[in-house]
Amino acid sequence: MLKISELAERSGLSAHTLRFYEKNGLIRPSKRSEAGYRLYDAADLRKAEFIRTARSIGFSLDDIAVLLSIRLDKESHTCEEVTVITQRKLDDVSKRIAELRSMQKTLTILLDSCCGGLETATHCSIMEALEDDAPGIEDTDAETHSKAGS
Amino acid sequence: MLKISELAERSGLSAHTLRFYEKNGLIRPSKRSEAGYRLYDAADLRKAEFIRTARSIGFSLDDIAVLLSIRLDKESHTCEEVTVITQRKLDDVSKRIAELRSMQKTLTILLDSCCGGLETATHCSIMEALEDDAPGIEDTDAETHSKAGS
DNA sequence: GTTGACCTTAGACTTGGCTCTAAGGTTTAT
DNA sequence: ATAAACCTTAGAGCCAAGTCTAAGGTCAAC
Question: What region does A25 belong to: left with phi over 0, alpha with psi -120 to 50, or beta?
Fold first, then answer.
């Protein structure tokens, strides 16, 4: 059996984080020592690794809680349930990427427009662009997801 | 002169947000009425719009505070200062996009691998992938920004 | 028999950007 | 004269996912 810091080292999560996950219902030690120390077995380690993998893919702790409950009794759940969670996450990620790409595009245009030199900023095209609502860019679209908008 | 809710309406920021920005040193009304009401003039409106535009491009409030101080006295600042902030923001955004794209790729692979049907999750390939450290994917790289790292 | 490295708990703090509340004062319209 | 619709302030709450602290208990080594 592993003590918390041993599980931490093996799982790549910190002891603090493991306790935090426990408080949030994700992982509980399968045993306690007489003194009350958390003791984890091999299955707990696999679970911790599962959580870490899922986190690294971007799943929220809430998603992971659901995935863990499915994992606990796969017979009672379907592939559909799993794909629904995954698809929802993919949609989130894709949406966020689109937002960031719009920002990226705007920032790139701004940088391209400015000399970036040691001139005074009096006529800085970036500053000027920020004064306009659409900063010199026809297609800012940053949080304006008004594709159909005039 | 505009009262706060009038500025809010014209600038697209809420009155709450304007007060919050004031507390954070971004925008202060150029006057107060006898009763202590905030009163904003046309320059304040332009400033509020500047802030809103900068926010929509993704600049943090800290960045915007710096941009505003440059805006206040452009003669004493250079294009370089402005591009440094913009470039740093672009780098942030690009890095975040790369992280999200890695997640997106992984999620897409997971979804492609799973039937998504009403079968029990017993052999769900997504669940199986999450059990592995690298979920069936050679190139997770999600928070591993170790391009040069061994 | 004491040092030092662990472990326990409850709970506060962090980040960033709001968002809201409470408790009161002002203005405007009727 | 009074109600509705504003305005003020300080400060709390929210989100997610940790991160850290304080105050104490335990365990192995020397």
Answer: left
**What's phi and psi for B2, nearest 5 deg?**
-100, 140
> How far is the C-alpha of A113 from the C-alpha of A102, rounded, in Å?
17
How far does A143 lie from chain B, in Å, by closest CA? 6
DSSP state of B31: E
Cα separation, A104 vs B14, in Å, equals: 26
Helices marked H in chain B: 4-11, 15-23, 42-57, 61-72, 79-113, 125-131
Q: Are the beta carbons of B80 and A118 separated by less than 8 Å?
A: yes
> Would you say B26 and B66 are in contact if contact means Cβ atoms under 8 Å apart?
no
What average pLDDT does range A107-120 have in this prediction?
94
* Per-residue model confidence as pLDDT tens digits over A41-94: 999 999 999 999 999 999 999 999 999 999 999 999 999 999 999 999 999 999
Reported for A111-115, long-range contacts at CB under 8 A and 24+ positions apart, including other chains, are A111/B83, A111/B86, A111/B87, A111/B90, A114/B79, A114/B82, A114/B83, A114/B86, A115/B79
**Which residues on chain B are in Cβ contact (under 8 Å) with A10?**
none
- Reported as a single tens digit per residue, the pLDDT across A5-25 is 999 999 999 999 999 999 999
Taking CA A46 as the corner, what is the angle to CA A75 and CA A20, rounded to the nearest 5 degrees?
Answer: 105
Q: Which amino acid is at A19?
A: R
Q: How big is the CA angle at B38 (ends B48 and B46), to the nearest 5 degrees? A: 20
